[in-house]
Design goal:
2 domains; alpha/beta; 367 residues; six-stranded mixed sheet; Rossmann fold; globular; 14 helices
């Protein structure tokens, strides 16, 4: 096919009409469902510190990744990468794929998720519910190569969230998650949070929040919480863009075996390494205190947020801290809420549960 033929194809009236309608449908979804609730986590009132959780599980596809998927689809459509009738392919641990399957169905293109076989069955079921199909691989490290190969074989588009997440989101505003947080805090006792805590899968969310904070000239600092079996913490501490680890994360949705292109270390102020048992104990605490089940990635952020609250309390500081509810816990009933699975993994949450309960009862944070 000649360059001239390609140019003629991309200016075709039928394609332009399809593109306009596809963009309209994706933007209409944002108009209906862009914002989510900001929940207050109960802390002793005499501490003078407020802890909030931005509940991203209330999106139509049930997770923080709904925002990302919308941005990636708009980015791919407006770049001319997503074409009528051609599949969109994504390397995903599940939640992004659920959301992308939804948007693919919205604009009428096929969707294929390339995921590790260890991905929870509930996520696979949700992808298929939204009309997508799943291509499962034995080794999580293979998802990138397999996705690129499938795109080449089918003539489709490899979305590549791990490269494009930080580019696709408008971090200056346009109702991104950071802008929403600050708008919802406007009437609260401490409207400018001392810290916002995020977790990283692609790194796109932490980059968006950090860039918005700097662009808007806020004093808020950004902390990224990293689970076991993820290299982001090591890469950030050692300033090593080639940091890697051999094992995959047990905390679905976050943690990566390599430094992903969308993770922007220079934009964030602090990182914490969180034991998996602490992450899981924290979501059990969330259910106990707010009556809300969440995935363990939420627990990773909540543990770090509570540690920051403890540091502020010890220093006599007042203010607010914000973290995220990333996705609902009903996707992980056979994992993080299963005593059998925890035993198989050798995860003992009890010491961390007791630690959290003691802290909220007024004892000092230890460790």
């Amino acid at each position: 096919m000649t360059a001239q033929t390609i140019d003629e194809d991309r200016s075709d009236a039928a394609y332009r009409s399809w593109l306009k309608e596809a963009v309209r449908r994706v933007q209409a979804d944002a108009n209906r469902s862009a914002d989510t609730h900001l929940l207050r986590f109960p802390l002793p009132t005499d501490w003078g510190i407020d802890l909030y959780l931005k509940d991203e599980s209330t999106h139509p596809t049930g997770s923080l990744k709904h925002r990302l998927a919308r941005s990636l689809f708009l980015y791919g459509l407006c770049n001319g990468w997503i074409r009528p009738g051609k599949p969109v392919i994504e390397a995903s641990s599940g939640s992004t794929a659920v959301s992308e399957a939804y948007f693919a169905g919205l604009i009428g293109v096929p969707f294929i998720a390339v995921m590790a076989k260890t991905t929870s069955q509930a996520k696979i079921d949700l992808i298929e519910f939204h009309g997508g199909s799943c291509h499962l691989v034995d080794n999580p490290h293979e998802v990138y190569e397999v996705s690129a190969r499938l795109a080449e074989e089918t003539g489709g588009h490899y979305m590549d969230q791990f490269t494009y997440a930080e580019r696709a989101t408008d971090w200056r505003g346009n109702n991104n998650i950071a802008e929403s947080i600050f708008a919802q805090l406007r009437l609260e006792p401490h409207p400018e949070p001392a810290w916002i805590v995020a977790t990283a899968g692609t790194g796109g969310t932490s980059a968006t929040i950090a860039r918005y904070v700097r662009y808007s000239q806020h004093d808020t600092r950004i902390c990224v919480a990293d689970p076991e079996n993820s290299c982001f913490f090591q890469g950030w501490v050692e300033h090593d863009p080639d940091a890697a680890c051999a094992s995959g994360s047990r905390i679905e949705g976050i943690g990566r075996p390599r430094m992903e292109p969308s993770f922007v270390p220079g934009a964030i102020d602090r990182m914490m390494k969180v034991p998996d048992a602490a992450s899981i104990a924290s979501v059990h605490l969330l259910e106990q205190r707010l009556g809300k089940k969440a995935g363990a990635s939420t627990g990773t952020g909540l543990w770090s947020a509570l540690k920051i609250v403890a540091e502020m309390r010890a220093a006599g500081e007042r203010g607010s801290v914000v973290t995220l509810i990333c996705d609902p816990g009903d996707r992980y009933l056979d994992k993080y809420y299963s005593d059998e699975w925890l035993a198989e993994q050798g995860i003992d949450v009890d010491p961390y549960r007791r630690h959290l309960e003691a802290f909220l009862a007024g004892e000092a944070w230890t460790g």
